[in-house]
Structure prediction request, 199 residues.
Amino acid sequence: MPPLQSRRPHTPIRRRLATTIRDSWRQLAGLALVLCALLLGCARVEGPASPQAAPPGRAGDARNTTAGAYGYWLDDANVAGYVDLMLTSRPLAELAGAGMEELAAVGAVLLTTYRQDSIWNQDGHPFRPVVRAEALDPTARAVRINGKAYRYSDASLPRVLDLLRHPQGTIPIARIRRPLEGGDEQAARLIQWLEEADE
Prediction:
């Protein structure tokens, strides 16, 4: 007589199911944070002009800071070719150690680029909220964003604007989604704000 088989589901199936559920919750949480940042960004654009009354965006450091806009290239040595771009309305030095609410209030967001040439969008959410900024080392130009270690460098306003206006870039690569799919409206607001900052 063959041995009785267990009625419990296969462990690999249970693991896959648990992973799928966990990933779905993470995506929903990320989307909620992006929507929060977008709403706060809209309020700043429509409010009175001030260094903080703008969506994230501009590139620069302390020598090049029009209308409180900042951009930083974030390079992960472990990921060849793909460079993140952080956009915020406050300098990185002021964001180190900030909490999630403060980061959402300044509209700090990340997007991934391919060699700083085009926007890479693998999940339909090209703009991701910054929820943690820590371990800033200005001497080594190192920082940890959302738990990931980077080397950072300043991004210029014309370069950021060009990237948002021409997200396909010039280097041909295979894509699974349009560069700004799911983020067209936020990109348009960023472009408008950056153009005003550049005047």
The radius of gyration is 20 Å.
